[in-house]
Amino acid sequence: MGSFLVAWPQRVLIIGAFLLFHVTQLNAQATTREEEIRQQRTDKRARLWPERTSGIVAQFDKYTERGLLEGAQSGKGNNGFQFLLGGMRSGNGTSFGVGYRRSDLWGERLGFRTTARGTFYEAYMFDADFNFPRLSTRGVDLRIYAKYENSPQMDYYGPGQDSDKENRTSYRLEDFGLDVKGRFRVWKGLWLGGTGGVYAPNTGPGQRSGFPSTEETFTDRQTPGLDAQPDFLRAGFTVQYDYRDLPTGPREGGNYYVHFTRYWDQDLGQHTFNYWDAAVEQYFPYWNKTHVVAVRLALMATQAEKGQTIPFYLEPTLGGNEHLRGFARYRFHDQSALLLAVEHRWHLFAGGHAAVFAEVGKVAPKTTQLNLARARYTGGIGFRFTLRDAVFMRIDNAVSDEGYRFMWTFSNVW
Amino acid sequence: MRLKKHRWIKLLSMTALLWALPMRSQKFYPDDPLIQEPAPFPVEGANFRGLNPLYEMATHQFGKQGERHPANGVIPALSTNTLGEVMDGPWFVNRHGRQRLSAEELLQGSSQGQPPSRQEKWHVLTVRKYGIRPGLLIRDATNKLHLLRFDPPGRLEMSTGASMIGSRIFHALGYWVAEHHLVYFDRTQLVADPEGEDIDAVGGVARLKEEDIDLFLEKVPRDPARGFRAVAISSPQGVQKLLGPYKFDGTRTDDPNDIVVHEHRRDLRGLYAISAWLANNGINAVQTMDTLVEEKGVQFIRHAWTDFSGLLGSGFEQVKNPRDGYEPLFDAGTTLKNLVGMGFRAPDWQKAEYPDIRSVGLFESKVFDPSTWLPTVEVAALANHLPDDDYWAAKQILAFTDEDLRIVVKAAQYTDPRAEEWVTQSLIERRDKVLHYYLDRVLPLENFRIEDGVLRFDDLAVQKGFRSPQNYSVQWSGFRNLQKDYVPLQEANSLQVPQLAMSSEPGSDYAARISSLVPGKTLTVYLRKGETGFKSVGIERDWPGKVLAKHEVSGAKPPRAYKDLTTRQQGLFASYIADYNAKTGFAVTPEAGYDALSTSERTTFDAITHALSRSQLTDAAGKSLGTALDLVVGIERVAGQYYGRQGDEQFRVYSQLKPGARQILEQSREFKFSEENIVYHVGYPYSYRQEGKVPNIQFSISEDGLRADIDVDYRSSKLPTAMWNGHLTSANSDVRAGDNYKLHNGRWAGLVNWWSSILGKMPTESGSQAELLPSDAPKPATPLPPNRPPGAQIAEVWDATQELLTDWLVRRNDEASGFVSDQALACTKLEDGADPKTLTSAQARERLRQVMRAVSNEIGKAASLTQAIEAVTPWRTAFRVVKQPFEGEFSIVEAPDSFAEHFRCEGRSREAQVRALSEGNLRYGTYYGAVFRFRRGTSRGGVLALLWTKQGGAWRVIAWEVIAP
Prior knowledge:
The structure holds two protein chains of two kinds. Helices cover 15% and strands 48% of the residues of chain A. Chain A is mostly beta strands. By secondary structure, chain B is an alpha+beta fold. The longest helix of chain B has 22 residues, at 417-438. Chain B starts with a helix and ends with a strand. At the A-B interface, helix 1, helix 2, helix 3, strand 2 and strand 14 of A face helix 1, helix 2, helix 5, helix 8 and helix 15 of B.
């Protein structure tokens, strides 16, 4: 009878175990870890689905392949179509527009950018820029730039440091310029260059509501160039030593320049003059460039021969989003201007930093009168938003003895 | 003889019984611990799936990709063996940590092939100048492809050096790595291939010319003596196809071997510690590459790393930023501190000293602190790192000696010896800091063995010299593998193995729980007795505060089962399961298959098939074309909520359509061809959208017209509204989100909101409530009378309340619903928001029972009513509080008749209730309210109010309401 002669309880046990075993086999229970993993893979295999690149990723690829980041650092934007904010004369509303850029035409021999912008206050700007990238790599910059801009709400308070805030007027400035600019690198950051072109301005009644038009308050005698505007030829030279680490968001180095431009009045014989624009900008970083003390000393001066005057719309000005920020735009007009600005900038987060600043400035008829007597002071705090360390947006708050100003702009201060 | 026979039979029975019992639930299998994953399943038809680094950065910074640890605990890593080690497989191979690589192997890394052959010129196939990762793709004389990557301007050797070092280290650690060879060459080595492509500034492709190569090289730094320097990256042997980067969350949907979501893989979570060590601060999925390889005749996907140019002092194509590794891309708190600090607040990292060596970039070790290290953007896998994941990574890092690191750094071939010295020294010091921090976050005990009857192990922290040896206490237990429980062994609390264990039969399991002086920092090692001794089969490491998250299936199940589906729905789902069984060989029933679906998958299937069934199709003449559901003949897949997936990959049903379905939609007046899907619904180009306002059904149909991706859009797709109404998000198609459910029933009546239980609507934290004041619950449990039989006469309303609530929440049986009158069922319908006509009384009563079961499941087992609820007392004096013995658990109030009339389910009016409470001459005695708050563990749940009255001599609940804050 052998092993089959078992007691009844054991027999039940064996049969029961066998049945249970059979049932578990039907349900494919894993008996090893390998089997468990294989079962999980079998389950996954029954539910496979094709992988594909998502449409959103494809769209992102399009933009990142167009030099988006390089364009952000250079301030020129990505290649192809661009959506633009800012970039027009301030005081005429928030500007926006479209542009198109190609940095690689003709085997990178030719770069091209054109934009069209406007504001809700009927200010417009169209420009076109041609440059020659291959020359740049050989230490030569050549650029042809044409711009038409119409700004119907330019502010004018009258001439001089003591102009009255209550004398705010508005005028329209419409101008066209076409210039060829060339420079070559003499040594490291030292550039020498020249410029030449035409400039055709036109002024007219301003459109800022609530304020009189400039010609209603001022005369041509007080405000040269108010009644009639000639066309100009202009030419000049430039000397610049620029060793900033990143011009669109500098944290180290310096930028020293002298630009000279002579304007020849072609029509009226009244407004031939020289324009000097010089500056020393120095950046003192510390703590791994997370903090920067930036200093700027700028001088703008004009010279007119006897019988000639500087048209008011080409005079140096102080006040606005770039200098003497506690004062209204174009608050002070005169034939020369001096500005000293100091900023302390510090890291906030990956995409931005904060700054406290102080500025002092003065306008005067002659450069010899540029001193601290009756100079105007301003200070404030601001926030700068960066992409790859290049500033693309700035929010500044400034105060002066004329009040408080809030600025939201799409450019760096300097 | 007979005795021996009996013993043999007994043994056979026991063995058979053991073998036959359900093995699935056992903790350890006979083949544990696995060292290697099983051979992979073959992969067929895998496609390239691209990722974009900016998009990855944005989605990880501003969204939470992948599944994160829930609030109630942590999810342990899922891709390990029972010892907590990563198995060898397509993700990782234990190399240097298991068996030391030789110096030559360390230096060679993954680059076992040859660098680009110089027998002939290198043919340039592609020039990419403008993208985020510029480079040249070349083909050498052996027809092998190489991607040449260069250093950024002014930083010769920085990126290429980091790439060489990083690739060697990652390879030694165990990751799969592309081949990286350092090459120097002149312009003459390159020639434009006749088929070559130049990618222009707007992504266009033009024929490659020699000058395109010249233009590219003009921007690349050059060694005056040796020429252009680049890293040549190529696929290792056996790679047949590149499939695009892998993500740090989810899995590849076309890879059957990719079964663990990446955010829970230990080898990826462990990258937290490794990235800290190597300063891979900007870790991004695009550093990786899935590759299709063939081994032993089987094609499968191997997951590799290809880009190390962001390691050490290099930040991909520019120098690292000093904040990298110390601050995330954006954090509101840190930004505010920095702002308020006005520039005077300067964390240490801002003052770190870096060498003035351009080839090193920003890389140092003095300020580096692994405890505060942060990736720039926290990818899902890194966000989920736990102390045991970090410990595993630290163990791999531990294998690198100082000399190993010196050898590896030589791969960078720095020209400046100071660079080599600085990088080596920094790696050594950072390694020590990482080990010091991560090694001891759990008990760093390894190499368990029994020697002379004593449990022995190695203490890695002591071996490394981080601390002196410490005493451990041990508690031994027998371990029942099948039941997964422990049988404590008395007086077995030393390292001496208990005698019982020593003399036990082979196959017996024991657990030794080792504790240190730090509470909560313990380690449990599982030992299995074999023929020749003990073997470690499992290790679990605990740390202070570790609480495992409850797995979804062990919590409350949604009160919705296969049997609740309509016949048509059941038919469709059954065919889906039949198809699944055919593919797998499993024998899953439709009921079990439906139970296995997640809640989101069920709601998706339910809502979409419901909408389809309620959508009649008619032609231009008004003739019926059937319903939209009639077009569907099968289900391919139900897509619920998937972390990290786009909106158009979630909340939809992928279906098989009957032939001619597209034509029927074309003919129907109810659907209109809207557009060709270009960006979304990839693979289903033809979009048919239901006419009328949202919600509407969208059929996205495949090219052959036989398959469709069907979803319901609850939010308008029209611009500009779609830009901000959530249409582009997954919530657009989720019936549970926002008011989508109401919108659904507005168009297609009759969908029951079964997924939202009472607790789902209740706030979990009450805060202050407008109408009610909480009272303190007594600490000791209030004694309760014994269970009354159903139908027993109960004199007092508080006793009836107690009986109902105890049956419901403590005894958890269906007797509780016997107290609920039919009138109260209307409240169930109210709660659903469903059309009252759609639910019969029986359906409503069943619905109520389901909800009550769901609530009691959610609360969990309560030993007493005191554990489950606490009293809440209405403050309005119009409610007269009744003294009763269960004041700690619930309040009983007399409710004015006029209030109660407006509290009933039918015709309930909040305004009328408030008015009634302000009246004079209130009448009492007919209605009573019972008010209480649910308790869920240590947190407080929502508040429920029951309205009682006597009907036919018995207390009945005639209405109820969830009190919202």
